[in-house]
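agent> Task received from the user: take the single chain below, predict its 3D structure, and emit structure tokens. No templates, no multimer pairing.
agent> Plan: (1) validate residues, (2) run structure prediction, (3) serialize to tokens, (4) report one or two observations.
agent> Step 1 OK, no nonstandard residues flagged.
tool_call: predict_structure(input=
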Amino acid sequence: MLSRTADSLYWFSRYVERADYLARMLEAAMRLSSLPIRREDAESEWASALATAGCMADFESLYDRVSPAKVTRFLAFSKRNPTSIRNCLRIARRNARQVRTALTAEMWDTINSAWLELNRLDFDNMDASAMARFLEWVKEISLRIDGSGYRTMLRNDAYSFARLGIFLERADNTARILDVKYHVLLPENVEVGGGLDYSQWAAILRAVSALTAYHHVYHESLKPLRIADLMLLNDKMPRSLASCYRAICANLDSLAGTYGKQGEAQRLARSMRNRLDNARIEQIFESGLHEFCENAIKDNGRLGAVIAEQYLV
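)
tool_result: status=success, residues=313
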């Protein structure tokens, strides 16, 4: 496969996954901002959405303060935000068009129809209920692309590059949301495990479709240590770091078999998976959850760069 084809497949999947993640974060911010238990800084939930998306600096270069309307527009529709939902779907569709022969008809039809529908929306006159419907629609598009790829693509190198994009992006997003919730969102003067803390964790788990999974696994009320264990180390949870790295290793091994050669990407991915397999959540909390998540984000970015150097350039 040509490296530019692999690159387009990889980034097509990454941008679809990123759009899905942004929709989930905006949905969580809407839930958190409507809680009856509030902190002194009423806009903290919206600032946390910018922090998890990694675009606070870009936002501050355009706006003088954080507000629900400004954050929503910036993350969802702004053409000046390179990673807004609108731009993510635009870039995903552009990459898909470049490799239409490597995608199935179902995948192309979904992303192309989504882009055409997106351009028909009236962004300037969306009320809260219309925004909620839009975010659900974005999540549905991601599910349809993911599902059609899983059910219709040949298990060849094209499939492996597409899946790598999904799981690299998902691992990064999971680490970011957990880090921001634990390190940024909860105020210093609010008790861990208190009413505000519980409501925030519940909103975050709903955002990543993990609230039901939590209760199935732990059979107890929400606790930060258990939630971190679910999102980091439980490989049965589809969005956990452990689950993502199991999939990353499997797809990198498939590429190694296809091309008859192992490389730095395989070595680094296995190292990261082994680290997760051998970690214990109590030790992570003792040494610092924030530091662990920060390192996971950096390591994930380094793996992405190694994959690009090994296969995509």
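agent> Step 4: summary for the user.
Residues 176 and 310 are 26 Å apart (CA to CA).
agent> Done.
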